[in-house]
Amino acid sequence: MGSCSATLRRSSPSSLSSASSGEPGSTHFHVDDDLKKVIQRRPELKKMAEDYPNRIVPRINICLSNIDRGIETTRSGVISTIRAALAIYRQEKEKKRHKPHSHRIHLKKKPRKAKHAYAETVAELNKVEIAYYLSPNVDLQSAVGDLQEAMSKLRSRKKQLEKRLRSRKLWRKAWSFFLTTAVIGVLVLSVVLAATGAVPLAIAGATAAATAMKAVEPIINSVLEDKEKALEDEKEIIEMMRDGEYTLVHELESIRLLEDKLGGDVELLMDCLEMPQQSAAEEAVEVAMTELEKKIGEVENLISELTRKVNECRNKLKRSESKFMKVIRN
């Protein structure tokens, strides 16, 4: 991550982004001490900066950990068991296909006593119900809402600062124009007085007034510049705090949708299991296993995608938290 040293305080938004993105080639995130003081002077800004690492990030991390546990339980307790059942089913189906047909007379002597062709498959499927565990109701949507609210407050404050900065710049231009006009007017007046033979005292007074106004100009300009600089510093801090957070919100929302979809797809798998468990017919097992074979690959792909997104989001969250902590620390 790049640095925001005293000589680079007026960094553009693009340079701020590269400074905090953690991309390859960057070094570390550094915040100028003067910028840190801006937060200390603004209680509401300090509260937002502290709220993010102390309240919002822990909530999101808890939600991600819950999703991790749900994924692991689904993978080990549901997917692996169904995969094992599918392997057994293929073996039993192959045995059934090659099993020689018994004589009808023999069948009459032993009606319905033959072993279920898919008995081992059904036994394996019954383990899924025991091992199955629904992911806890993660409150990720609420956590994302907290993050969106914090970003909304920062965005609103940034708009206020931009409006005040435009107003300050207009005032500086108006003041500069007024002062220049006044000085020129007084100097012209002194020339006119001298040309008309006015009393030397009047001429000296006009000249002194022009000199006094020119002397006051840097003092007033300095005051205006300090106020403008304070607004720009606060705006810069807000830009640092907002940098990359909306991307994080989007990724968290994507994770939430994937987690909901995974829960729904696992429920569909469980619905498929009910058929062989409720019916003793071999045909019911065959229909159920065919459906499971179609759906399980989709669920596995969804688990892989969700796992990847959760890991990426957790890494970005760590970088973001580190950035916030460096912004608010003295």
| Count of folded domains | 2
Distance between the first and last residues' Cα:
20 Å
One letter per element, helices H and strands E, the order comes to EHEHHHHHHHH
Helix percentage: over 70%
* Secondary-structure-derived class: mainly alpha
Note the main attributes of this structure:
330 residues; mainly alpha; 2 domains; membrane; coiled coil; DUF677
Compact overview of the structure:
This protein is mainly α and 330 residues long. It has nine helices and two strands; from the N terminus they run E-H-E-H-H-H-H-H-H-H-H. Residues 1-29 and 102-113 have low confidence and may be disordered.
List the helices and strands and how they pair.
Layout: E1 3-4, H1 13-20, E2 30-31, H2 33-41, H3 43-98, H4 104-109, H5 119-131, H6 140-195, H7 200-242, H8 245-278, H9 282-328
Parallel strand pairs: 1-2
Give an account of the 3D structure.
The chain has 9 helices and 2 strands; from the N terminus they run βαβαααααααα. The chain is rod-shaped. It starts with a strand and ends with a helix. Helix content is about 80%, strand content about 0%. The longest helix is centred in the N-terminal third of the chain and has 56 residues. It holds the Pfam family DUF677. It comes from Canna indica (Indian-shot).
